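Trying the structure run again after the queue cleared.
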Amino acid sequence: MSTITISQENSTAAPRVLLSDFEYRRVDVEGVPISCAIRGSGPPVLLLHGYPENHLAWRHVAPVLAENHTVVVADLRGYGNSGKPAPDAAGVAYSKRSMARDQVGLMRQLGFGQFQLAAHDRGARVAHRLVLDHPGSVTRLAILDIVPAQQSLRNLTLAFARGNYFWFFLAAGAGVPERLVAADPDYWIRTLAGQLLGKGASIEPAVMADYVRCFSDPETIAGSCADFRSMVGIDLAHDEETSAAGQKIECPLLVLWGTQSMGGTGTEPLSIWQQYAPDLRGHALPTGHFLPEEAPDLVSAALRDFLD
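Done. Tokens:
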């Protein structure tokens, strides 16, 4: 990983951190530019990040996987250096269905009709919708530190609400979260990340600065808030439709979670995911929420054992 200063339209931009030896591309997918970095050869693997991060969340894992795979690390729409469409009232622009279509389109344009997929947090929600909407595109799926939003929202507990208060804050309307996050994005990103990290864990200053850089852009703030609004709106409707139709994840699924994250809420991820995927395996790691950043060696080993 190297730190390189590049020109930015945003005058508040900090030096940007890039993945060493990865080729950066910005691919237009149905009018939305998707930023990605590519390295390696072999079976293709797509890695998707969570909130409030970008593709750098995989900075320690991606190079390891690239020893035996073609690794594509992408920024979700609304995040990082990908395009940021204006949010719409219906929530379509930031529905997981739309965000999943971006990533399928990206991989197809890169020449990969089928691929393996590992995703964390928001990216994992996109990945879940992707395998449902595009069956056959993904041959193996790894989900990190989430359970289906449908499950969480329909069975809300006090412990979960306390630990995930930002879900409901960011989904609020009338421009409230946009205005408050924009008032001090540095404080918001660092404080939220600090609350979700495991005991004694940290994120390198240069990487954290890049996360803050992205959230110094009002379009990133707007897009990410729209992402959360869609989760409690149109995404939930799509999930209910899928469940009613009896549709499940067809490919093998690996679930990883942090003992200091979901382990503290009484959630049993495997028992929940069994309702959504017949071919399932997984285990907990001794981390908080940010598994690829807190325990990259353990995540890399688990993925290398699971992926083709």
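The chain has a mean pLDDT of 93. Worth checking whether this holds up in the mutant runs.
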